[in-house]
Amino acid sequence: MARVVILGAGIAGHTAALFARRRLPRSHQVIVVSPKDIYNWIPSNIWVGVGAMSSREVVVPLRPVYAKMGIDFVQGRAVEIHPEGTGAVGTPRVVVENTGEEATGQRREIGYDYLINATGPKLNFAATPGLGPEGFTQSVCTYEHADKAAGAFLAAVEEMKKGRTQTLLIGTGHGMCTCEGAAFEFVLNVEFELRRHQVRDKARVVFISNEPELGDFGVGGMHFKRGGYVVSSKLFAESLFVERGVEWITGAHVQKVEAGKVFYETLDGENHEAAFDFAMLLPPFTGTGMKALDRAGQDITADLFMPNGFMKVDADYSKKDYAQWKAADWPKTYRNPKYANIFAVGIAFAPPHAITRPRVSAKGTPISPAPPRTGMPSAIIGRVVANNIADLVLGRTQRRPKTASMAALGAACVASAGANWWSGTAASMTMYPIVPDFERFPEYGRDLKFTFGDIGSAGHWIKKILHYLFIYKAKALPMWWMIPE
Amino acid sequence: MSVNKTDQQAPLPTHSTRFFRTFVPWQLLKFILINLKMIRMIRRSH
To answer: How far A401 CA sits from the closest chain B CA (Å)?
Structure first.
């Protein structure tokens, strides 16, 4: 019997768990370790954050799903990995700290034959003083945060209904954030809801981002064919903002937040302040801070993790200038180079470098988006790694492992711009590949046949249908595996 | 606050473009086309 342990039950971890269970006979054990016993379909948190959807609609209780599927669930947080075992026990194990209601904080060891690290990020609000729901700004990174953001947003709307002007500041709360697409969606939804509440004339809506220009999205922007021209996502995004009267600040590193005020530096090295009544600023991400120890108890964290806490996999981590970056730098099988039975998927794996060209301000402050690896690619990587592990467990070693390099995967991004079946719209964008490959596609780095952008109600319908499909899939209801990631 | 307010270089949609964005028959057609494009891209990624 083999035991596959999956740390994390987000989009990557939950997908990996379902596919591992589907492929492996019940004689093999699949264990999921997650601090919460609830799955959150995070892309729909955008709608929760503006009060257009209840947080109940974006979550799935995991225990019944795992009980039905024959997956063991441990509510806890992995704090240590012992890839060589401990002392006299030479089998690999993880140390888990209980986060459930019973025996909170108690530690236990769980042995594994294969380990998938899908812990996702630590939301590093502490990187910017005053940032986050414990400080002066809102977030939509979790359904609880999104609920709180909705309360603050609707309170601002009430102020506007009383005739008071409000400034709403939305974007990224640090120079090294990722997930700019989520902030982009949120600002468009906020603007839509302000019109729906008939208070748009009372609101100043400002987008602040660490992207060098609008439409970068942490992937260096993209190009697509429109109206007989090849246009950039910068023009596409700027057009959407100008049309809606949304102002923007790009190349910004938020240094600190005080009550009603942010302090930020821009790429030209200048310092600025901006006042706000409501702010939703995303935090930067780091790894969850797991430690790794060898059999003698010596710290080997640096063998498994990069300094930012993300796990090393089969990527090329050698220091290179932007001009030397290649598609081949990106991992394919997500296997740790030192311990072949450890894998990392989703946000937990360490990317070799950014996708957007790195920039520093005139004062030397790095202000550049970190590479996104959420949503569709995250789930595909989870499935591919789970299937490869199943092949290893079942002794199908003659099969070549499937690969899922982000330089060979496409992504579909449907960015909501208003949650209403008839008046709502969404920007539908696809790109292939996610990481530009200038050797294969010398002109734009991507295949323009598979890279496009469009906005309209159809995008919103797709976004809404995808919401229900992915909730269905997360519940592992009949034929769930037929729904592509 | 230093912001890029209304960048006049950004192309703005015409009235008809805005109309068609929420015109149901046209969007139904778009719905089919976008889904086909996405399926094509997804098949390439799986």
So the answer is: 14
Nearest to A175 by CA among A240, A241, A238, A249: A249
**Cα distance between residue A462 and residue A416, in whole Å:** 10
Q: Which three-class secondary structure string do you get for A405-435?
A: CCCCCCEEEEEECCCCCCCCCEEEEEECCCC
Give pLDDT, residue A104: 80
Residue type, A260: G
Partner-chain contact B44 A242, CB within 8 Å: no
- Chain A positions touching B42 (Cβ under 8 A) are 410, 412, 484
Within 8 A of B9 by CB-CB distance, chain A residues are: 238
Residue A88's Cβ-side half-sphere holds a number of Cα atoms within 13 Å equal to 0
Residue ranges making up the domain that contains A337: 3-122+285-393
Q: What is the DSSP string of A79-117?
A: EEEETT-BTTB-S-EEEEEE-SSTTTT-EEEEE-SEEEE
**Is the peptide bond preceding residue A433 cis, with omega within 30 degrees of 0?**
yes
Map A356-413 to HEC letters.
CCCCECCCCCECCCCCCCCHHHHHHHHHHHHHHHHHHHCCCCCCCCCCCCCCCCCEEE
DSSP A201: G
pLDDT tens digits, A259-314? 999 999 999 999 999 999 999 999 999 999 999 999 999 999 999 999 999 999 99
* A71 located within any domain: yes
Strands (DSSP E) contained in B1-46 are: none
Residue in chain A lying closest to B26 (CA):
A458
As given in the structure block, the two tokens for residue A99 are 């986060």
Please count the other Cβ atoms lying within 10 Å of the Cβ belonging to residue A183. 25
Q: Which residues in chain B touch residue A376, judged by CB atoms under 8 angstroms apart?
A: 45
- Read off the pLDDT band of A218 (50, 70, 90): very high
Instruction: Tell me the CATH number at A358.
Output: 3.50.50.100
pLDDT exceeds 60 at position A450? yes
> Other C-beta atoms within 10 Å of A63: how many?
12
Token digits of residue A294: 């060898």
Residue A333: both structure tokens together: 């099988």
Gap between the Cα atoms of A249 and A267, Å rounded: 11
